[in-house]
């Protein structure tokens, strides 16, 4: 037996770590004040991470916090999906049963994937949003539980975490917004080699300002002395401290082991390696205890007592005696739940496990698997399938391992742990050829595969194929974000199918390849879909056929809407109905509705979209309903029915939030901002954009968000911010995937920015490239504003002689392009009239009657900013025509436009209105005009106010005719003013007059630039 001192091998004194504990306590205080906290604690194995967490947990408990601990479970080399979160949620449920039940209310079926105690999980749909939905619901669950009390969630041994756990932790730390919550996780820094899967996550979290990272250093010599004193309950000999410090290098765990060994007098026989030190402790146990330690080492992080008894095959008395010896020697500890055993430290388990012989290891795994097969109740139900698969795999028995691994892959899929599903499917593919043929023939697609539809075969009698596993793996890889691995599997499947006559399965894999290529930015995906479409052409209707046509129609809707897209959508609806695939049918009908609206069949198209939304809600098909909440309001906005879109968008936000789909919620927030913008609710646009930026993670969402921000900044006159946001948006949208809905708004912003900054040649180049490419059918909502922006830029620069070359040709191109664009709804018709007037204005041929048509069209709509802009143009035309009646009417128009600009904060429009009113000597607000100060240098020169305006234009290089057009006077009057100015300045020509004005600094540089309205 070992000496009693071994029971003190864990020091009763907590040594060092004062700074780290202060950081943790500060985080606890911040969380208690309502600011969620996230911390990562790294350090080498044995340095004291767990002890630090235990001390902090004790302190947090004393302060009234609820502490939930969860550890990553290692079974052989396999981590259990979501194990630390499941364990932590169980702890919360034990501590706060009523509160957790209330927080999970309504989402029990989904959250049961993490915490089976909440009830049965629903089958559910497996798509890109399934895992995100689970993650969002988990994050909101923790926020709600921590709303009224401080909660600490501690996750240990992150270096063993499965991929799904890593993804959930990343999501949680990125999206925590409210609640009195502390989330901390520990990991071994010395295990994180260059290719360790945790390394990218740590790099990602380092970029988050909300995550604090602590690295535990080794103990100092003084701290080692205090630790030894605590272990031995006596002051140690300084020479002994020096020796232990030198050998342990300050690692707290090795300090403990060396202190105990020294106390026993064993040090003299030790080798120089610390690993051998750990094995010497084990080898000092009785043989039966050593045998039990070896069994526990291979069983996983924790081994249940009944399972251990079945594997050890000792009498109960002998087993208990062996366990008592191992526990007494502090090699094993009773598990926290009291129903099993684990090693005191994972370093000891690893040393014992590494010492096992290969045959011994596989034999132990076989005994574990046989025991678990004989009595499945030996382990918790939610771990049973995964552990059995791991045991059989490491027993090197393909006949047993293949079905077990496939069972585990189905379980992982049901929990939305797609990363683990992919790993298990790859393992199944590895085992496939080694498994006996009769075993493979007993496997059925119905039991293990659901990705590839059952087409033309009986899933009950048809054996599972290797290609079925590849289909499952390709989809799992796409769903968990492992797109490169999924693409490799897809390419390999297509190579295998090249030698088979299976067009449906081949077409299905080409669709998967299209989706992956597009997601990876390797292309638009069109070529792959064309291949799939060619393969199914002429075949009888099937689910694969309907799916191919739906993807083709969807791609065409976004990139090349037209007759082909319309036909594909119609055929997809027809085929889906024939084979009874309701979800594909509704998806295809939704695409058809969008195409109908874009083709000008507005009311039938909107009716179809409303009907799809209502049916999806009635039949509880969330994926379709959520798409409808995105697409229906978008099409309403496209036809100018912004106000009608708002309640649908708000309903959609609530629906997405209830289903835990933050990405879809972000899309809907973005569409809400897009509809609020023309309505003039710009402060609400800011709020909606803030929501998008807070919760949206996808490339498309962030690109759209940046585009909206750029447009708002442009309207407000913040050109620098607009430029930054435009660059950001371009970075999100792939050059391979130039969908009009992304590309055309960016071109319009580029044209507007260049024009506002006086770079008209650049603005023309942007516009010319868009005109060269042409506008596909259905692009009206983007084409009209783009053409308007180009025409307005030409009109604003008309007075600059240097910009005249090339203008006529460009204006004619705009005019010809506009003739090809459909204008069948009021908002498009209003834009058509506006564009016609802008083109005439750019040519100097517009009159009030041209602008009256545009103003009248917009007065019947709720688009205040657009109305203010055309009112400004009408006022300009009225003042050019002259007459007192026209002046009075222009003054009223300018006052209305100025009031809108001031209310919205549209500075460029407000400034343009102000300059026009000043030139025309019209007051925008009641009250006397301001009197210039006596020190005004213009007054000192004896110039009148009108002569000042003329001199400013002379300094800008304008001719008498251009001055007359700008100031609404005749050329003869302008000539008289110029002559008076030359006489008063005592100069002989216009160039000298401009030089005098420049020398005296009479006019800022901005005053000489052509006015521009954003």
Question: What this model shows, in words?
Answer:
With 1014 residues, this protein is mostly helical.
Break the fold down into its secondary structure elements and pairings:
Elements: H1 18-32, E1 37-43, H2 49-62, E2 66-71, E3 74-75, E4 78-79, H3 83-95, H4 97-104, H5 108-111, H6 130-145, E5 151-156, H7 163-175, E6 181-188, H8 198-206, E7 211-215, H9 221-232, H10 238-248, H11 252-264, H12 274-283, H13 287-299, E8 303-304, H14 305-312, H15 316-328, E9 332-334, E10 340-343, H16 346-354, H17 358-374, H18 381-394, H19 398-414, H20 418-432, H21 437-442, H22 445-448, H23 466-480, H24 483-497, H25 503-519, H26 526-536, H27 543-559, H28 563-579, H29 582-598, H30 602-618, H31 622-638, H32 642-658, H33 662-679, H34 682-695, H35 699-716, H36 719-732, H37 740-756, H38 760-773, H39 780-796, H40 807-819, H41 826-842, H42 848-859, H43 864-881, H44 884-904, H45 907-919, H46 937-940, H47 945-955, H48 960-967, H49 971-985, H50 990-1000
Parallel strand pairs: 1-6, 1-7, 2-5, 5-6
Antiparallel strand pairs: 3-4, 8-10, 9-10
Helix pairs in contact: 1-2, 3-4, 4-6, 6-7, 7-8, 9-10, 9-11, 10-11, 11-12, 12-16, 13-15, 13-16, 14-17, 17-18, 18-19, 19-20, 20-23, 23-24, 24-25, 25-26, 25-27, 26-27, 27-28, 27-29, 28-29, 29-30, 29-31, 30-31, 31-32, 31-33, 32-33, 33-34, 33-35, 34-35, 35-36, 35-37, 36-37, 37-38, 37-39, 38-39, ...
